[in-house]
């Protein structure tokens, strides 16, 4: 069974282009796959009119992943999910001490991860899943127009 990473849901790979950002749900660490200079340039634009299509796409990806950091840190479901993932990471690190050791025994931990990840797609009484709620709210945040004098993407 292969799980989609968060960037594959709303940001499938554009042919020939790597993903912009990814979030590790266990550690809540963001990884950016763009140069820091590009990140700074896009984040400091003073007017949305200055943004190219690619800049807007980059900015939306950055905002989207930051929204997930907030969800995993501040919501009950997200925090519990993240903590449970982190406990599996800690168990793997304690048991095998090296990344190579963890990778060699990856199957042991996939068994622990599958039931946890299946909770993301559990349908509630109104037909919604936790994943659909988290992704749709992150999508709405990324599409939100900048407020006041804040540069695009800065959450005021």
Q: Which stretches of 5+ consecutive residues score pLDDT under 50? A: 1-12, 148-153
Give helix and strand order, one letter per element, not per position.
HEEHHHHHH
Give the class from helix and strand content and strand pairing: mainly alpha
Strand content: 5-15%
Describe the protein.
The protein has 156 residues and is mainly α. Helix content is 57%, strand content 5%. The chain is built from 7 helices and 2 strands; from the N terminus they run H-E-E-H-H-H-H-H-H. Helix 3 (53-74) packs across helix 4 (76-96). It is globular and about 50 Å long.
Short overview:
57% of the residues lie in helices and 5% in strands. It has 156 residues and is mainly alpha-helical.
Reconstruct the topology from this structure.
Elements: H1 6-10, E1 21-24, E2 29-32, H2 36-43, H3 53-74, H4 76-96, H5 99-104, H6 106-118, H7 130-143
Antiparallel strand pairs: 1-2
List keywords for this structure.
mainly alpha; 7 helices; 57% helix; 156 residues; disordered N terminus
């Amino acid at each position: 069974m292969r799980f989609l990473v968060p960037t594959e849901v709303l940001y499938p790979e554009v042919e020939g282009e790597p993903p912009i950002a990814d979030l590790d749900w266990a550690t809540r660490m963001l990884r950016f796959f763009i140069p820091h200079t590009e990140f700074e340039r896009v984040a400091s634009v003073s007017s949305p009119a200055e943004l190219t299509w690619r800049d807007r796409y980059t900015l939306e990806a950055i905002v989207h992943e930051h929204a997930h950091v907030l969800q995993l840190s501040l919501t009950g479901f997200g925090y519990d999910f993240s903590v449970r993932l982190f406990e599996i990471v800690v168990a793997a690190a304690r048991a095998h001490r090296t990344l190579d050791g963890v990778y060699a025994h990856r199957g042991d931990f996939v068994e622990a991860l599958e039931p946890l990840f299946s909770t993301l797609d559990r349908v509630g009484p109104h037909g919604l899943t936790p994943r659909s709620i988290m992704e749709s709210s992150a999508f709405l945040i990324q599409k939100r127009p900048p407020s006041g004098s804040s540069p695009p993407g800065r959450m005021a």
